[in-house]
Every structure is written in C-alpha cells, then in structure tokens.
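quick one before i forget lol
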Amino acid sequence: MNRNEFIIATAVILFAAFLLGWFASWLIHRLGRVTRAEMGELESMAQQLHDAEEARDKAVRELEEREAELVGRVGKAESELQSVQGELKESHVEIEELRDYIERRLGKHA
C-alpha cells in the first residue's frame, strides 16, 4: 500500500466514522425529543397533580377541623360524665342515709 492509497483509505475511514457519529447523534436526538402531544400530556398531568394536591390539602384541613371539634366534644362529655358521677355518688349517699333513717324509724315502732 503506497502513501496515496493510505491517505485515501484513512480519509474514507474517517468520513465513515463521521457519518456514523452524525447518524447516532441524529438518532439519539430524534428518539429523545419531546413532541408537542407529549408536552400537552405532561402539562395535563401536572395540572391534575396540582388539583390532587389542593384536594388533599383541603381534606387534611377539614380532617384537622373535625378532629379539633371532636376533641372538644369528648372533653365536654368527659366533664359532664364526671359531674354526673359525682351527683350519682351523692345520690347513693343520700339513699343510704334515707334507708338508715327508715330502718331506725321502723325499728323504734316495731
């Protein structure tokens, strides 16, 4: 192989490598490109995600409000329960006193 043939063979190999690299670059660009339809779909998905996050935040706020209301109602019910239990104990004491009184009164007459 003489010098001219070597230069031509090297030039052909380099040109083929250039063409192969250019084709690979074009193919990667073509496959990786986002189309307008895909962009529209991505925007739609982003809007749906945003709406879902707002709905979740609203549900969390409502849940926290409801929980606070229920905690308040439970506290009120517990205080009423303790009050009624105290009154019930007083009633039991009063009933026992009345029984003792009745037994004493009936015991003196019998």
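fyi The mean pLDDT is 92.
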